[in-house]
């Protein structure tokens, strides 16, 4: 990738930690490769500080080292033997305790400094310090004053007094600016056993505060894509998740919401829009013209097989592998902005290309995937809470 990122920050203060095992020039070669790739993107990576940990208690010494580098922009840590337990413990230290973005690497990725692999790592590092590798022209003028959000759950658990207790993590990610490359994120942890997010309002409230701080006003439109829910649970979602959000928006409009900036004449009425994303469906599409094959990326079906009286469509945003394409089904259940079908179809299709961990489109809007990855990291690492100092960047990629 030689293209300059849409938004980036030079790395002038970063740190590399490893255990010193392997060829001594391996870490130098990896750093040189990363700097060269960053330079091709017109991003400056200064020479990092390199710390070698030779203690048997790797994570303990890493914590001590990071405590001395609290102002580092990002810590790159080579995880000994690629051990998963060590990886998650390091993530807990960096994210929950210290609030430092981290990039953990398997030793094999360092010993074999493959250009394509290192390029992906460099892009992740750019994201984790607040950058954005690219942006998509969403064209719709109404999106300039829109806060787009993604919400998903991850079912995991935590060890409490030597017992494993099932938990679910709600991930919430929103974009704040006109380019939709500035982010706000948050998580809440709840008892497992349901796909319904029991506590959404505080996460939504945090995102609204971030939007107001970034723009000096509230958004005119809020567009939430809700992934990870089954079609039979939509009524429960209506009764809990979005009814609570609508109540909050009503309180904000009447200046009755505590801890929220008061509305002024410059603030529009906030229109609430809610789209349910359904991926686990049995529907498949096949292109019949010119020989059987997969439909092209961007294919939309909104007639014949859609429900009457519902703003609904099927979308294949990604290039599918051989076989029948698995579309994603979208149902618009709240549309206070009165956006039409073309708006939802075009916007959704473009948002599927905004996921920075993949070159190309994915099956659902990037905001949903960000929420999913965030919730999964917090759940599997058994992190009790996210660090608010990192909530304005994609630290979880």
Main sheet overview: 8 strands, mixed
What proportion of the residues is helical, as a percent range?
25-40%
> What is the C-level CATH assignment of the largest domain?
Alpha Beta
- Number of DSSP strands? 12
N-to-C SSE series? EHEHEHEHHEEEHEHEEEEHH
Label the CATH architecture of the largest domain: 2-Layer Sandwich
Tally of alpha and pi helices: 9
Please state how the strands of the largest beta sheet are arranged side by side. Answer: 7-6-5-8-9-12-11-10
In percent terms, what proportion of residues is strand? Answer: 15-25%
Tally of individual domains:
2
Structural class: alpha/beta
Rg of Cα set: 22 Å
CATH fold node name of the largest domain? Nucleotidyltransferase, domain 5
What is the approximate shape? Answer: globular
Averaged pLDDT, please?
Answer: 87
Q: Span between N and C termini?
A: 18 Å
CATH superfamily of the largest domain: Ribonuclease H-like superfamily/Ribonuclease H
The low-confidence runs, each spanning 5 or more residues with pLDDT under 50, are 160-164
In a few lines, what is going on in this structure?
Helix content is 30%, strand content 22%.
Account of the 3D structure:
This protein is of the alpha/beta class. It has two domains: 115 residues, Response regulator (Rossmann fold); 250 residues, 2-Layer Sandwich (Nucleotidyltransferase, domain 5). Helix content is 30%, strand content 22%. The protein has an eight-stranded mixed sheet with strand order 7-6-5-8-9-12-11-10, sandwiched between helices. The longest helix is centred in the middle third of the chain and has 20 residues. The chain is globular. About 1% of the residues have low confidence.
